[in-house]
Design a protein that fits this description.
This protein is mainly beta and 141 residues long. Helices cover 6% and strands 36% of the residues. The longest helix has 8 residues, at 15-22. The structure holds zinc ion.
Amino acid sequence: MIADHEVPQPDEVTEGWWAATRQRRLVLQHCGDCGRNQHPPRAVCTACGSTAGLGWRDAAGTGTVDSCTVVELAPSPNFEPPYVVARVRLAEGPVVLTNVVDADPYDVRIGDAVSLRWRELPDGRALPVFRPASEESKPRE
Ligand code: ZN
């Protein structure tokens, strides 16, 4: 399991995002002034520069693999290679840097449809990860 110290602690910009993960909700920063969604959370809207209009909206939890690679050398003993690091483009537009799980790492392809899963952290937060949408119809093992 990933240790707490390997995941950033919430700060004033990200605390709302982390709080949502405790409820297993993936949220995106939404700008009420220009209507754009962004991720990761920032202090300002990258589209219009607004600081006052930013709030949170739930993401559907679906997307497609935008780019991916297989990691074969773990950065710490808490990681079990090989595993997939991927950029997933969410249905709402923003991109999330994440892992694709529940798949043979060497079978993951750009363009694959994926859906949200959670990786628990020891402190109750969770990290959004994704699995191939084609796995949805298969029985759980
Ligand atoms: Zn904006």
